[in-house]
Amino acid sequence: MSGCLVIVSTPIGNLSDFSKRAARTLEDSDIIACEDTRMTRKLLALSERTSTAKLVPYHDHNGATMRPQLLADIGAGKIVALVSDAGTPLISDPGYKLVAACHDNGFKVATVPGPSAPLAALTVSGLPSDKFVFAGFLPPTTRACEAAIRDIRDLSMTIIWFETPRRLLKSLTLMSDILGPRLAVVARELTKMHEEVIRAPLPDLVAQIQRRKSLRGEIVILVEGRHHGDSIFDEIDIKIMLQGELRRHSLRDAVKTIVERTGLQKSTIYRLALEVNKATTPE
After folding, report:
1. Closest Cα to residue 212, out of 195, 198, 202?
2. 178 CB neighbour count, 10 Å cutoff
3. How far is residue 121's CA from residue 118's CA, in Å, rounded to a whole number?
4. pLDDT for residue 83
5. What distance in Å separates the CA atoms of residue 159 and residue 150, rounded to the nearest whole number?
6. Helix, strand, or coil here: 79?
7. Alpha helices in 180-250, H assignment, sequence order
8. Out of 97, 103, 132, 248, which residue is the most buried by the measure of CB atoms under 10 Å away?
């Protein structure tokens, strides 16, 4: 008789969010596949009963090796629980490959739902929640980050990203340059003692973060989608962006950059660039 894979959600910060069902599932499992066995042992310490489950690491680096072993265990009738360090597994981790392999082999997959940082951030953001996209972590390099932001520029739904404290200001600045004054939210340390939700148009949000000495903890960024029928950028926005580019680059390069950021016609950007250049050039 085949076993089962159970997807078990764990707290994203506040350990009180560890549900009784999640605890019981981990207690009754034969194997617990986890990102970090040390984190999972802390959760097991909260359980009322002592678990005899075998803890095995399962993450990006060993997934290809571990999947056949876990599938063999499930096929032998064992119950395998899959957990992440925090939140719902498969959200920005390799768990979906194991789930897909279980379905391909005809094994049962069950879920114990619970905390999820993207959904928790969405509920407190005050941004539209009827449609949204979770885009994972923003790329670390400037060029890749710009490309990722441009990819979602025309979506008319709330966009959700993960980001690190160290890269937060850089990423928000790129968003402000590319997306304009859209309403955005930085949610950090959700469910923890220092939980904070900062909500403002992107340029104002950048200014607020610049004034902070440091930010710590897990961070979620949310940005409202494009309002169809409305232009994301008005001429004032574009001229401000052009002023910044023209201080560092030639008119040709400045126009090229702003065209890429806004998606507007080159002729429109070129006309505005000439106006900005004329206004800033001494007679």
Report:
1. 198
2. 25
3. 5
4. 95
5. 12
6. strand
7. 202-211, 235-246
8. 132
Query: Which residue, chain included where needed, has tokens 């399962």?
Result: 58
| Position 99 confidence tier, pLDDT thresholds 50, 70, 90 | very high
Please give the Cα distance from 33 to 54 (Å, whole number).
Answer: 8
- CATH topology assigned to domain 4-115: Cobalt-precorrin-4 Transmethylase; domain 1 (3.40.1010)
Where do the structural domains in the chain lie, given as residue ranges? 4-115, 118-223, 235-280
Q: Is 120 left (phi over 0), alpha (psi -120 to 50) or beta?
A: alpha
**Integer Cα distance of 153 and 149 in angstroms:** 6
- Please count the other Cβ atoms lying within 10 Å of the Cβ belonging to residue 202: 23
Sheet holding 108-112, edge to edge: 54-57, 31-34, 79-83, 4-8, 108-112
Cα distances from 57 to residues 31, 38, 41, 94, 222, in angstroms, run 10, 10, 12, 12, 31
Q: What is the DSSP letter of 10?
A: B
Helix (H) or strand (E) holding 272: helix 266-280
Task: For strands 196-201 and 183-188, give the pairing.
Answer: antiparallel
Name the residue type at position 90. L
Q: What is the pTM for the complete model shown?
A: 0.78
156 vs 107: CA distance, rounded Å: 38
**Least confidently predicted of 48-52, 82-86, 223-227, 270-274:** 48-52
Q: How many other CB atoms sit within 10 Å of the CB of residue 132?
A: 19
Residue type, 121: A
Q: Which CATH superfamily is domain 118-223 in?
A: Tetrapyrrole methylase, C-terminal domain (3.30.950.10)
Residues 35, 86: contact at Cβ < 8 Å? no
